[in-house]
Automatic annotation (TrEMBL):
<dbReference type="GO" id="GO:0005524">
    <property type="term" value="F:ATP binding"/>
</dbReference>
<dbReference type="InterPro" id="IPR017871">
    <property type="entry name" value="ABC_transporter-like_CS"/>
</dbReference>
<feature type="domain" description="ABC transporter">
    <location>
        <begin position="23"/>
        <end position="267"/>
    </location>
</feature>
<dbReference type="InterPro" id="IPR003439">
    <property type="entry name" value="ABC_transporter-like_ATP-bd"/>
</dbReference>
<dbReference type="Pfam" id="PF00005">
    <property type="entry name" value="ABC_tran"/>
</dbReference>
<dbReference type="InterPro" id="IPR050107">
    <property type="entry name" value="ABC_carbohydrate_import_ATPase"/>
</dbReference>
<protein>
    <submittedName>
        <fullName>Sugar ABC transporter ATP-binding protein</fullName>
    </submittedName>
</protein>
<dbReference type="InterPro" id="IPR027417">
    <property type="entry name" value="P-loop_NTPase"/>
</dbReference>
<keyword id="KW-0547">Nucleotide-binding</keyword>
<keyword id="KW-0067">ATP-binding</keyword>
<dbReference type="InterPro" id="IPR003593">
    <property type="entry name" value="AAA+_ATPase"/>
</dbReference>
Length: 269
C-alpha cells in the first residue's frame, strides 16, 4: 500500500483543479495535562472535495475538528485558510471566516420553526426604525430566504419552513442543520457523524446533500464511523490513529479493510 502526505493530481477530485488547499493545518498539537489529543497533525482540504476523517475512539478526530473550528485552541502548529494564517479563539471566529460546523448533537431549537433555526443567532432585522430601534426581526424575509436555501440544496421534504423542528424526523432535522451550515459556510462545511442514528433512506438524503455542497464548490470535512458511507462519498480519507495522522488515502487506492487496518494499527502506511 502506498500513501502520500500531499495527494497527487490523480488523487484529487476533478472538481478541485486548484492545488492550493482551502484549509491547511500543520503540526497541530493539543494536550490535556498528560493526555495527548493531537501529536503534530497535518491536514489539507482542497477546493470542491469531500475529505473524510476516520479513526478509532480516542484517535483525535474530535480534537482535530475542534481545533480547526475554534472550539479548542491548539498548543502548537498553525492553521491556514486560503493561504493566510488564522487564529481562531472561539467558534464564532471560525464562523466569521466562513467555516461552519454541524455537530452530532445538531444544536437545533426544537420549538422554533425551520426558518428560525436556519437563522438562529443570525436573525435578520426589519429595515428602518422597526429593526434598528424596536429590533423586530424580518420573519417574512427569513422565511423566503430559507425556502431559497432549501431549494438550492435540493431539499424537497422541507418546503414548509413554518413547521416546528420538533415535528420533523431525525433525517429532516439533520437536513435543517446541514442547510444552515451550507447557507453561511462560504469556505468550509464540517459535518460530525451526519448519518449517525439515521435509517438507510434518511442517510442517503444526507449524503446527497453532501454531494450537492461539493458540486457547488464548497469543500466538506466529514467525520464518520460508517465506512460504507465514507467510501461512497469521500474523495480522500484522512486516517487518525493515537493522535497522529496515520495516512491519507483514497477510495480508489485502498479498500475498506485496508482502511480499517491503518486505523487500528494492524497495517502501516
Amino acid at each position: 500500500m502506498t500513501t502520500t502526505d500531499t495527494p497527487s493530481t490523480e488523487d484529487r477530485p476533478a472538481a478541485a483543479p486548484d492545488t492550493t488547499p482551502v484549509l491547511r493545518a500543520r503540526g497541530l498539537v493539543k494536550t490535556y495535562g498528560h493526555v495527548v489529543g493531537l501529536d503534530g497533525v497535518d491536514l489539507d482540504l482542497f477546493p470542491g472535495e469531500v475529505l473524510a476523517i476516520i479513526g478509532d475512539n480516542g484517535a483525535g478526530k474530535s480534537t482535530l475538528i475542534k481545533c480547526l473550528t475554534g472550539a479548542e485552541i491548539p498548543d502548537q502548529g498553525e492553521i491556514l485558510l486560503d493561504g493566510e494564517r488564522v487564529h481562531f479563539r472561539r467558534p464564532q471566529d471560525a464562523r466569521a471566516a466562513g467555516i461552519e460546523t454541524v455537530y452530532q448533537t445538531l444544536a437545533v431549537a426544537p420549538s422554533l420553526d425551520i426558518a428560525s433555526n436556519l437563522y438562529l443567532g443570525r436573525e435578520v432585522r426589519r429595515p428602518g426604525p422597526l429593526g434598528s430601534v424596536l429590533r423586530l426581526t424580518d420573519r417574512a424575509g427569513m422565511r423566503e430566504a430559507a425556502r431559497r436555501h432549501l431549494t438550492d440544496l435540493g431539499i424537497s421534504t422541507l418546503q414548509d419552513v413554518t413547521v416546528p423542528v420538533e415535528n420533523l424526523s431525525g433525517g429532516q432535522r439533520q437536513a435543517v442543520a446541514v442547510a444552515r451550515a451550507a447557507a453561511f459556510g462560504s469556505k468550509v462545511v464540517v459535518l460530525d457523524e451526519p448519518t449517525a442514528a439515521l435509517g438507510v433512506r434518511e442517510s442517503g438524503q444526507v449524503l446527497q446533500l453532501v454531494r450537492t455542497l461539493r458540486d457547488k464548490g464548497v469543500p466538506v470535512i466529514i467525520i464518520s464511523h460508517n465506512m460504507p458511507h465514507v467510501f461512497e462519498i469521500a474523495d480522500r480519507i484522512h486516517v487518525q490513529r493515537l493522535g497522529r495522522r496515520a495516512a491519507t488515502i483514497t477510495p480508489r487506492s485502498h479498500t475498506m479493510t485496508e482502511a480499517v487496518a491503518l486505523m487500528t494499527g494492524a497495517a502501516e502506511a
